[in-house]
């Protein structure tokens, strides 16, 4: 798949061939769904907790005498049927962590990148640099690249503070280093701005002949 390479002014400067094993991979919706559910589950803290009737600190005295009142027999105000009592079968702290093999995680990323490429939602730029953080200039760059509407994901090959600081002040725009590309941020973006340097990082990680790469994606 050949796509145009744009500059920061929105002009086409060249073309590039996207790797077929990454951007034309078989699309598996269940695999992408499993990877997304795993990432969202692993982000949960699992610190929720409720008190049982044994943990609730209320009086242990009997409400009223056992017989002769015409009311039901009760011995403790901690029972779950009373307001302020314990919670029956309530949540307790737990881990929501899910495991997924590396090949499946990378396969899900290839599927998502393939979908983005088919829908023409990937914008390749030759370089993305700024001398100093300027949000107004970055907004203009996104407009030049037809990525000002909707949610935009800007990928960087390496840390670039001026670009990062400029993007993070823009609503519905997110900046991410290509090493940390993940299924959640990729799927919720309407446009993906990908400099050539970031593209090289993605190809080095997700390329099938580079399966022994030491850099992990989406952890």
Give the overall form. elongated
* CATH-level-4 superfamily name of the largest domain: Ribosomal protein L4/L1
Broad structural category: alpha/beta
Radius of gyration: 26 Å
Stated plainly, the CATH topology of the largest domain is called: Ribosomal Protein L4, Chain: A
- The CATH class assignment of the largest domain is Alpha Beta
Number of strands: 6
Average pLDDT value? 91
- The helix/strand series, from N terminus to C terminus, equals EEHHHEHEHEHEH
- Low-confidence blocks of residues: 210-216
Tell me the count of domains.
Answer: 2
Question: Could you describe the 3D structure shown?
Answer:
- The protein has 219 residues and is an alpha/beta fold.
- The protein has two domains: 2-27 and 97-210, Ribosomal Protein L4, Chain: A, CATH 3.40.1370.10; 45-95, no CATH class.
- The chain contains seven helices and six strands, in the order ββαααβαβαβαβα.
- The protein has helices spanning 20-23, 29-42, 102-118, 135-144, 161-167, 183-187, 196-206, and strands spanning 2-6, 12-17, 122-125, 152-156, 173-177, 191-195.
- Strands 2-1-3-6-4-5 form a six-stranded mixed beta sheet.
- Strand 4, helix 5 and strand 5 form a beta-alpha-beta unit.
- Helix 4 crosses helix 5.
- It starts with a strand and ends in a 13-residue tail after the last helix.
- The model is unreliable at 210-216 (pLDDT under 50).
